[in-house]
Amino acid sequence: RSSDPPSSSNGDDSLVAAAGSNGVVVVWNARHALLGELSDNSKPSDDLLSSIGQPEAVLVEHSRAVHRLAWHPSPQRPGLLLTASQDATVKLWHRQASTRLPKPTPTRNAPLPAKRKGLRSWLAVPSSKDSPTEDTRTTTYSWQCTKTFSPKSEAVRDIRWSPFFHDAFAMVTDSGALIVYDIRFSHEPWVKERSAHPGEATTVDWHPTRKYVIATGGGRDRNVKV
């Protein structure tokens, strides 16, 4: 069981994620799980009924406990999820959609008379007015780990996306370091403050109105630093 409560996405409020001490992250689509997308007159399909209560994805990349989850705060970037772990990594997950178009099948055949070898027979051809007109496309989603951030063998305690720089996030580690990454460049941090706290740092957050102000909280020194 993780110390971090289940987290929901701001970009898509139907997505909920939770993580455990075994390093596994589970993502649910709450609308599908609760049949929230069905109207009063609609009937659930067999696929939908079988998916009730089932997760959309099970993400298995971390080798130790996951301490924090962070969805991207921008509605323009739904399905971007950061996970921070005791295994000294932060992983960036991306949700990708794919649409499947089923082959059209007529609902009823209209008979057409024809003569063949002196005998009267019937040929069945589709009638355009009897063909289904509703959109029966189905959308499925897959999750991929697109980046891994490794702050040199230090367990990551907390992570937060920047509310101003959409490619930036901050993390704090067991050694008390504050590190800021740009997700476009996973090999080198944007900012690294090695001695933010003398012991472990347990929390981090961005100022809601000042772009370059970050607050961190330490576990052993019981201080909050800005």
From TrEMBL:
Entry keywords, A to Z: Repeat, WD repeat
Entry-linked InterPro entries: WD40/YVTN_repeat-like_dom_sf (IPR015943), WD40_repeat_dom_sf (IPR036322), WD40_rpt (IPR001680), WDR24 (IPR037590)
BP terms from Gene Ontology: positive regulation of macroautophagy; positive regulation of TORC1 signaling
WD repeat extents: 59-103
Gene3D superfamilies (alphabetical): YVTN repeat-like/Quinoprotein amine dehydrogenase
GO CC list: cytosol; GATOR2 complex; vacuolar membrane
Pfam family, one: WD40
Origin: domain of life: Eukaryota
Protein name: Peroxin-7
